[in-house]
From TrEMBL:
Superkingdom of the organism of origin: Bacteria
Gene Ontology BP annotations: fructose 6-phosphate metabolic process; protein N-linked glycosylation; UDP-N-acetylglucosamine metabolic process
Name of this chain's protein: Glutamine--fructose-6-phosphate aminotransferase [isomerizing]
GO molecular function: carbohydrate derivative binding; glutamine-fructose-6-phosphate transaminase (isomerizing) activity
Residue intervals passing through the bilayer: none
Catalysis performed (reactions): D-fructose 6-phosphate + L-glutamine = D-glucosamine 6-phosphate + L-glutamate
InterPro entries, A to Z: SIS_dom (IPR001347), SIS_dom_sf (IPR046348)
Catalytic activity, EC: 2.6.1.16
Family matches, as PROSITE patterns: SIS (PS51464)
A Pfam family of this chain: SIS
Segments forming domain SIS: 46-199
Amino acid sequence: MATITRNDCEQNALSKQVKDFAVLVPGYIDEIYARAVKVAADMAAQDAALVRPEAVYVTGCGDSYGASMAAAPALRALLPGCTVHPVRASDLAGHVAAFRLKRGVLAMGISVSGTTQRVLDGMARAKSCGAFTIGLTGGTDSPLSRDCDRAVALPQPEVSAEPGAPAPSVLSYAISCLGVIFTGVGLALAAGTITQEQAEGYREDAKAYCAACGERCQEQADDLFVLAQELMGCDGFDFVGDDADFATAYFGSCKFAEGFGAFTVYDDSENWEHVNHFIKDTRHMATFSVISKSSPSLSRQLEQLPVVAYLGRKGVVVTDLPAERIEPQELHVISLPEAPVSWLAPAANYLALSLLASYMTVLSGEQFFRGFARPWNK
C-alpha cells in the first residue's frame, strides 16, 4: 500500500479551506462589517431602543450553535448592561420562557443556508413573543431573511467538493462567528457606546488576527501531519475548553466526527475533572485542551493538564500561552497568535483542529460525513 503523504492529505476541500483562510477571510470581514453596520444604523433609525437591547439570545444548529457560543463574549463586551444567551435552537423554539422574549430583547438566528427549520422555528417564536429578530444568513431571499425583522447577509464562500459529498465547514463557520461579532460592533456603534474609529479598529484587528492564524497554521502543517499520524491509534477524543474556548473545543469535536467518524465528547475543564476523567481506556484516548491566556478560569484549565498526562492519555494543548507555561512537557502544544482583543480569539483559533481532522480523515481512508451512504443518508 502506498504511503500517504501530507500533500495527499491537502487535496480535499477541508484542507483547502484552511489553506485559503488567510487570503479569503480578511475580505469577508470587510463585507460583513459594512453590512452589519448598515443593518444596525437602519435599526437605530427605526427606533433607538432597538440597538440597546436588555438581553440578546443567539441561536443556531451544529456549527452555527458553536458560532453563537464563540461570539457571546464579544457581545457581552460590546453591549454593556446587556445579558447574552447563546442557546440551542430547540430551546429557543420551545423551552425558553416566553416572557423572556419580550419587547426590548434581541434574538439573532444563524443559518448560512437560511433554511434550518429549528432556527426558523426559534426566530418565529421569539418574534411572536415581542423580541426583535435578526437573521444572519447567506441567502438574501432565504426563509430566515424573509421571516426576521432584519437580516445581515453573510458572504457565501465557494468550496469545491466532490458532488454529493460536501466537506465540513471552516470558512462558513468563520463567517458565522464574525457575522455575530460585527453585528455587535454595529449595534455598539449605532448606540454610541463605541466610536467609528474603534469600530474600524476592531475590523482591522480581526483581519490581521485571522490572517495571522491562517499563516501560523500553514507553518505548523508538517508538525500537525506528524501529530495526526500519532493520533491514529486513538479511538476516542475529548475536547475541553471554558467559555469561548468551549466553543472552539465543540467545533473541533464536530470536525473530528464529521471528518472521519470519530467518537468524540466535549466539556468544560471543571466538569471534565468530575466526569471525563474516569473514561477507562486511557491509552487509546486523546484529550485536546483549548486554553486562552485571557480565560477567567485559566488556573483550573492549567490544573487539568498534569492529570491528562498522569492518566496516560495523549494530550494536545491549543493555546496562545508561551509553550513554557504548559506543563508537563510531554504534552503536545499547538501555539496560536494572541488576539489583539480577547473576544476575537474564537474567530480563528480552531484552524489547527480543522486541519488535523482533514489529515486524519485521509489517513483513515474515510469519507467526509461517511459519504452520506447508508445508514447516514437519512
